[in-house]
Task: structure prediction
Amino acid sequence: MGLLTSGEPLSWNETQKYAEYVREHGIIQFINVYNRLRDRQDEFLKWGDEVEYMLVKFDHVNQKARLSLKAEPILGEMNEREAQERQKPNATLASLWRPEFGAFMVEGTPGVPYGDLCKDLTKVEDNMRFRRREIEALLEQDEALLCLTSFPRLGTEDFTWPKAKLDPKNSPTGSIFIPDQAIFGGHPRFRTLARNIRQRRKRRVIINIPIFLDERTPRPFIEQFDDEEAKKAVKENHIYMDHMCFGMGCCCLQVTFQASNLGEARNLYDQLTPLCPILLALSAASPIHRGLISGLDCRWTVIAQSVDDRTKEELNEEPLKDCKFRINKSRYDSVDSYLSEAGEKYSNIPLVYDRKYYQKMIEGNVDPIMARHIAHLFIRDPISLYKEKLDQDDTIDMDHFENIQSTNWQTMRFKPPPSSEPNIGWRVEFRPMEIQLTEFENAAFVVFIVLLTRVILTYSLNLLIPLSKVDENMVEAQKEDAINKCRFWFRKDISPKKACEESNDTRNSNIDTANADDDHQTDNYMVKMSVDEIINGKPGHFPGLRFFLNKYLLDSQMEAETQCWINQYLNLISFKAAGKAQTTAKWIRGFVMNHPDYKKDSTVSDKVNYDLLKEINAMTKGEVRSRSLLPDEIQIKNGPNSSKFTK
Result:
């Protein structure tokens, strides 16, 4: 969601004038909080999840499913309830609701962070169900709250309710697909971001993802548009999109952990980074965009392209003249540097950073590794700025820092303590996962990653690999059926002793694996593994992450009933890794491609979309259960174990 500041947003020209001012004061604010709280110690674990939802309107007469643009009144109701609850003595909120980019999206979180691991792991699914009931109580009979990563027909004709009119010539985004009404209008941040990204890059965003070429898909597949920008941007055999909404209108599942101190936060940030592509592949849930089946299973590259505000100079398409840097990635992309001393030698990709701000932080007693990370984030411009927030007290305020920090959307986010919340410490946010269809599945992914953080810290595991290999893995993770078809770089031994034994010569590791046999694709301490091998292990070669999770559950002496339910969640992850349970993306592909109305031309019609979302809604409500997604062996808490099944 990012920083939601109240006030009057400045125009892009005005924002540009203050860009250096914001960066300078943002750096001062970070130096102040870093030095004030670098020795902060927090005794108790705190953590929480963020679930993003879509509001869908069913037209049963015409058999259409559209996105319902009513997030603003729904959030108004929920925020009013929250304000009333906070007035009560010793108020304890069960949930919090916040806006997201789309006028059809809402984000729900627990009202307070979770803490006690054994007890609170069993609360996640129940709290998610409670959140759903809160919003469903405000919906009409023909509306639904769905956990969809991408709405299949977003950007097609007549995809919103009420119907919104396209007006590219007068729209600040200029999109030929997305009307302005589809952007959440209850806060100026979202439309300001969309407008300023376009104005900064001096053209619409360009999104191209490969199309899935089916039997009757035209070859070559080349889209034709009566629009000059689109004509220049389209690529052969690709789906073309042109608006921030195609990415930021996707839903995801995120988890934030509070570490006990700064050092632990940096270690967690690093150790979780190699897991980002693995969890992206496991949670894959978005194979359809703009009514067309894509050649990818994940949203990641779509969203990275949708907020890419780089100019032609920064993209190396023109000589540097008005810009400072060639920038290698979008604002939304994978991690570019590790944060711990142990991780530093694996930061082997070129890091572009502002040396002026780096030096300023060094002089302010920030260590070089952290200074480079922050100076890298600060090569970006602020893209949303408010007149009322220009003058701040840098000794206590953090808005200028967060302005830049919150618009660098990477797979992992390192989060300093906010000055306004003394009970919040050093945190890391795990951001790659796609949203799943049901509370059980989403709870399973949350429990899995929360337990992994405990396992990493308890057994001092070392998962570090060069960031160049993590980037390779991110590309593989998005491919169709990556779970079964792709292999990923991973450490052969993650026990702590190996960290001392391996060669230090990792910074320039660059072996050619293009034509190598998989069994020989190794680099001393790394090997390419399947997701199944990474999660479930390979006898005689790698124990698997599940082995360490099982060991942790035994060592922690949890109650038998608690362990039983946690194991159901872990079993789902293990089944997905082994291909015994489909990813959401594979299930969606199968539903569409086996639908009697599908013409084998890569196109998802209104009728197919309607039936797909009706089936998902029935699964969400527990009326049906798909054996492909949730095999019989998995018991679902508070859900259907023997009711109507689908394949």
Q: What stands out?
A: Confidence is low (pLDDT under 50) at residues 498-520. The longest helix spans residues 439-458. The radius of gyration is 24 Å. The chain is about 35% helix and 10% strand.
